């Protein structure tokens, strides 16, 4: 689309902000976003102040500002898009900035009251509609294609990132306005005027930046056509309706935005009822966004053991619970703290939702899905933001009294927040059900395990109808013999048994085994060793173990994940957490129902081996000691899932101990008389 220069075909161009024209546009955008947020805060606050006195009128007046902000988008949206494609974009933006400057300035200058506030707001919004598509269409003119995504991320960052800054600024300006009131009579009693002046100046600054931005092509290089809103919505609905994941995401996001809208819509009234002024309103607003930013930043790193889909749904449910607390606890400081938490929950849901679409929705549908969600989010937000204060106003102020004594205040704003909370919690649960990918694993247990840094196996899940028993132990411990004996015993009980081992139970696994155990590869790095074992295991789980479990078979495996934790984690001194994570990923979280550890001192085990030592067997004794200690530690940490048997006992004694334990976990009672099929197997080298 653009011609960023000849060299870029071969090398990746530098960071998008190193591009001077884009940097200038981006700065203008940041300044404007800051102005937009300041505008929203100042106007809602001013509308409240102008109609102060009557709770109901005040709520309706604030709602009015939001309606007026939403109307132009519905009426003028498609027209403004076409305008941006036809006329000089730089001039469009410049003229729009000047117009916004004049309109916003007129509000404090004329002191004209609520009607003009509405008219001016409406006009500013109309102008915005021309500015935004002109800007969006300009970005691809300034930025090479490979950097477009990065540029869009930066745009998103300033669109939302400036909100907390604006909130802080608004709080500071309100306080400053109060203080200056003593010196400048004009500012006396007009708390929001200073904020509106700064807001107007922001648009002027942007006008200047855009005017000096001569790199925007005069005639459009590309005709960027945006499909009509209607077509977009229809196409989006088709896809969204047919896809479980996206349906869940959409439901969840609507809930999150509805809850957010409820907060934005009634925050001013609620903060007022709690005794806070404009500054406190600004702080609450800022708290939500600060929380959101941190949620977006930390969300992806949170609770890695938990499925992302579950975290998405849970964070929305959590947002609902926090919102309910906000509605019910009438204390400004606590409300501010909870607002941070609320923002964080929403931020986590937002970033995870976005990432999931990026990862799981096919490329050709992704753009539309994103844009669908964006428009849906906007419509929901504006709708709720409009309806919420109106609803709060209609309900009015109420006190719950017992025996004539007022004990608790439940105003319209509290009620609206409670409804928002209910919607969010309900919708979060619905999203959880829609897109759950770990059916059969109770959510509470899953969450609890994730908090402790673990991942639960999908018990009772469809694939786990069979039973999975793993054998572990050091070299020459006798586990190979014992696993075979157990397999025979189980078959004799009439079970369908799959006896298998690691490494090397699949086609690819056999080649990996050759690499891993061949003494020729003495210098193999510890990390590649761990990855190769994990690769063998991934293949093993997918091709052998899961299919067997799925059909209800008993799987008996000679070695599994614990071998990697012991040999690569403790033996090779890799970070045990890393090894666990890689293996968790490789196996999709499949954990054995029972692990039998045959605990044999290496000094005994190693002497049992015959033939030439392989790469691992030829490690020094301390290596094998470390491995043994780790096996024992693993068993001790989760005793219920392990059977530890002394490997120096007689072979049939060991078998009996194993059978006794396995009998306890078998799905059906096993007849006792079938116990004695042991003792005749030749000793097989471990
Ligand atoms: P194998 O000949 O199957 O021996 P064993 O009788 O001990 O099972 O070789 C497997 C070797 O691979 C063994 O020395 C242990 C090692 N190993 C690891 O280091 N990490 C692992 O994850 C697995 C499965 C095995």
Automatic annotation (TrEMBL):
GO CC, one annotated term: plasma membrane
Membrane topology: Multi-pass membrane protein
EC category name: transferase
Family: Belongs to the thymidylate kinase family.
Residues binding ATP: 473-480
Subcellular location: Cell membrane
Species for this entry: Planomonospora sphaerica
Record's protein name: Thymidylate kinase
NCBIfam families documented for this protein: DTMP_kinase (TIGR00041)
Residue ranges constituting the Major facilitator superfamily (MFS) profile domain according to the UniProt record: 16-438
Keyword Chloroplast annotated: no
Catalytic activity: dTMP + ATP = dTDP + ADP
Pfam families documented for this protein: MFS_3, Thymidylate_kin
CDD domains listed in its UniProt record: MFS_MefA_like (cd06173), TMPK (cd01672)
Principal location: membrane
Gene Ontology molecular function: ATP binding; dTMP kinase activity; transmembrane transporter activity
Keywords linked to the UniProt accession: ATP-binding, Cell membrane, Kinase, Membrane, Nucleotide biosynthesis, Nucleotide-binding, Transferase, Transmembrane, Transmembrane helix, Transport
E.C. number: 2.7.4.9
Function of the protein: Phosphorylation of dTMP to form dTDP in both de novo and salvage pathways of dTTP synthesis.
Bilayer-spanning residue ranges: 60-84, 116-134, 154-173, 193-213, 248-273, 279-299, 311-329, 335-355, 376-395, 415-432
InterPro entries: MFS_dom, MFS_trans_sf, P-loop_NTPase, Thymidylate_kin-like_dom, Thymidylate_kin_CS, Thymidylate_kinase, TM_effector
GO biological process annotation, one example: dTDP biosynthetic process
Gene this chain is encoded by: tmk
């Amino acid at each position: 689309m653009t011609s960023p220069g000849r060299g870029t075909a071969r090398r990746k161009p530098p960071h998008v902000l190193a591009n001077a024209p884009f940097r200038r546009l981006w700065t203008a955008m940041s300044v404007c976003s800051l102005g937009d947020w300041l505008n929203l805060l100042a106007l809602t606050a001013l509308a409240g102040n102008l109609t102060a006195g009557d709770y109901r009128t005040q709520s309706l007046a604030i709602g009015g500002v939001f309606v007026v902000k939403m109307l132009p988008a519905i009426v003028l949206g498609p027209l403004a898009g076409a305008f941006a494609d036809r006329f000089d974009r730089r001039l469009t933006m410049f003229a729009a900035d000047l117009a916004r400057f004049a309109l916003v300035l007129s509000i404090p200058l004329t002191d004209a009251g609520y009607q003009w506030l509405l008219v001016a707001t409406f006009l500013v919004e109309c102008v915005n509609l021309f500015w935004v598509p002109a800007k969006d269409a300009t970005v691809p003119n300034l930025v090479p294609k490979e950097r477009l995504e990065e540029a869009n991320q930066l745009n998103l960052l300033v669109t939302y990132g400036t909100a907390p800054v604006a909130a802080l600024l608004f709080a500071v300006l309100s306080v400053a306005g109060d203080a200056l009131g003593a010196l400048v009579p004009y500012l006396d009693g007009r708390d929001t005027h200073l904020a509106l002046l700064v807001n107007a100046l922001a648009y002027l600054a942007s006008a200047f930046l855009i005017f000096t931005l001569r790199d925007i092509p005069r005639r459009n290089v590309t005709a960027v056509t945006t499909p009509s809103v209607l077509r977009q919505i229809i196409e989006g609905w088709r896809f969204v309706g047919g896809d479980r994941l996206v349906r869940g995401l959409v439901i969840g996001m609507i809930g999150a935005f509805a809850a957010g809208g409820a907060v934005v819509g009634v925050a001013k009234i609620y903060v007022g009822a709690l005794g806070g002024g404009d500054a406190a309103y600004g702080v609450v607003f800022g708290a939500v966004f600060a929380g959101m930013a941190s949620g977006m930043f930390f969300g992806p790193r949170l609770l890695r053991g938990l499925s992302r889909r579950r975290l998405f749904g849970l964070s929305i449910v959590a947002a609902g619970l926090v919102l309910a607390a906000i509605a019910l606890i009438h204390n400004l400081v606590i409300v501010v703290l909870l607002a941070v938490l609320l923002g964080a929950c929403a931020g986590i849901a937002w970033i995870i939702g976005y990432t999931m679409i990026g990862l799981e929705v096919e490329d050709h549908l992704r753009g539309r899905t994103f844009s669908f969600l964006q428009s849906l989010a906007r419509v929901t937000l504006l709708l709720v933001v409009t309806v919420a204060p109106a609803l709060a106003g209609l309900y009015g102020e109420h006190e719950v009294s017992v025996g004539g004594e007022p004990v608790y205040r439940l105003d319209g704003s509290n009620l609206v927040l409670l409804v928002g909370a209910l919607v969010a919690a309900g919708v979060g649960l619905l999203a959880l059900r829609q897109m759950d990918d770990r059916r059969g694993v109770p959510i509470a247990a899953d969450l609890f395990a994730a908090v402790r840094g673990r991942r639960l196996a999908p018990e009772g899940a469809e694939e786990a109808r069979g039973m999975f028993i793993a054998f572990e132990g050091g070299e020459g411990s006798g586990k190979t013999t014992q696993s075979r004996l157990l397999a025979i015993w189980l078959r004799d009980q009439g079970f369908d048994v799959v006896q298998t081992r690691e490494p090397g139970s699949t086609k690819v696994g056999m080649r990996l085994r050759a690499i891993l155990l061949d003494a020729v590869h003495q210098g193999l790095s510890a990390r590649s060793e761990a990855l190769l074992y994990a690769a063998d295991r991934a293949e093993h789980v997918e091709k052998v173990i899961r299919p067997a479990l799925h059909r209800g078979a008993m799987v008996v495996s000679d070695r599994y994940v614990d071998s990697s934790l012991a040999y690569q984690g403790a033996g090779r001194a890799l970070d045990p957490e890393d090894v666990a994570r890689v293996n968790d990923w490789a196996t999709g979280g499949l954990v054995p129902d029972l692990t039998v550890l045959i605990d044999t001192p290496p000094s005994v085990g190693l002497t049992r081996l015959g033939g030439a030592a392989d790469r691992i067997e030829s490690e020094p004794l301390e290596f094998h000691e470390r491995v043994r200690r780790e096996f024992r530690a693993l068993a001790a940490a989760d005793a219920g899932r392990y059977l530890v048997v002394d490997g120096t006992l007689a072979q049939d004694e060991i078998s009996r101990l194993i059978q006794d334990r396995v009998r306890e976990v078998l799905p059906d009672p096993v007849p006792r008389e079938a116990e004695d099929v042991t003792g005749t197997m030749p000793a097989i080298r471990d």
